Amino acid sequence: MADQQDDLRALLNDSGEPTLERAIAKAREEVDRLDNVTLNIAVTGETGVGKSSFVNAIRGLQDTDEGAAPTGVTETTMEPTMYPHPTMPNVNLWDLPGIGTIHFKAQTYMKDVKYQNYDFFIIASAGRFRENDMMLANEIKKKKKNFYFVHSKTDIDVANEERKGVTEEETLQKIRNNCLENLRTLGPPPVFLISSHYLERFDFQELVINLERELPDEKRDVLVMSLPVYSKQSLDKKYNTFKKAAWAVAITSGAIAAAPVPGLSLACDVAMVVSFLTKCYYSFGLDDRSLEKMSERVNKPILQMQLEYLLLPHDLCS
Ligand SMILES: Nc1nc2c(ncn2[C@@H]2O[C@H](COP(=O)(O)OP(=O)(O)OP(=O)(O)O)[C@@H](O)[C@H]2O)c(=O)[nH]1
Ligand SMILES: [Mg+2]
């Protein structure tokens, strides 16, 4: 009984509310919010710059996996295609067709892809900065939406320049300056150099931090929960987000209420707890498929970290 009182006190503390009634109301809102908020992210840019590959990478998939967006060396994506996040159904990634092809003319592109449906855009660009990159950036701004500029396939640029004796640092600096210079009249907006084949290299981490910063609270948490684990920092962030939500699930599910408390169901809502733990399990990539993919895809220390989170005593899901 003393333990339960302590649990209750700790949860009240986490909720930031003075009374249990207020904490319960807040917790219900929190649980609804996590289940109901939908985030629509559109990935746009010229044909072949790696938009579909980026969508796959951010969903934690390889291009050859079942359910991955098709990628290829010729024009591949022919209509805006929505890919629900594999474990977070309320995060939708929209893989848009390339701008400026005979099928998608620059002049009507924004209308054709139904720009109004998206929360924000990622403009992907590879190699040189192009006129269409600027056109997209201008149009998105005009529509009062936000975008992030992603220079993709950075691994190729770095490898090409290394052959000539140019260091990785110099190459990155040169590409970054060039993008910023071209976008200067628009702010300049944030620019990120990434490789969908190596998320742990370059600016993927910074991209995610910026995406989170721009989003309203409820969408930020959904985004953090949905992203693949690619660094210690991303793992910590995920842990903290889930921890923040854990009190809400515990209170609304009645998991802590063995003592009769007005407004709380006596029976623990098993379905809610199971749903939350399932979210944790998949979000941390602890299912067999994700672990296998991770060990193929990134270096061993990250996999090791995930396993430690699973195996060490932890208060998140206890
Ligand atoms: N090395 C490297 N190759 C990449 C990267 N991203 C994409 N590619 C390759 O670039 C080619 C085109 O990639 P897609 O993702 O199909 O490009 P897209 O922008 O979706 O093309 P469309 O749908 O035709 O507009 C594929 O062969 C990818 O494997 C990357 O970060 N690094
Ligand atoms: Mg594509």
Automatic annotation (TrEMBL):
InterPro entries: G_IRG_dom, Immunity-related_GTPase-like, IRG, P-loop_NTPase. One of its GO terms (cellular component) is membrane. The keyword Nucleotide-binding applies. Pfam families: IIGP. One of its GO terms (molecular function) is GTP binding. The keyword Zinc-finger does not apply. Keywords: GTP-binding, Hydrolase, Nucleotide-binding. Residues 37-214 form the IRG-type G domain. It comes from the Eukaryota. Belongs to the TRAFAC class dynamin-like GTPase superfamily. IRG family. PANTHER family: INTERFERON-INDUCIBLE GTPASE, INTERFERON-INDUCIBLE GTPASE 5. This is Interferon-inducible GTPase 5-like. The lineage of its organism: Eukaryota, Metazoa, Chordata, Craniata, Vertebrata. The gene is LOC105897960.
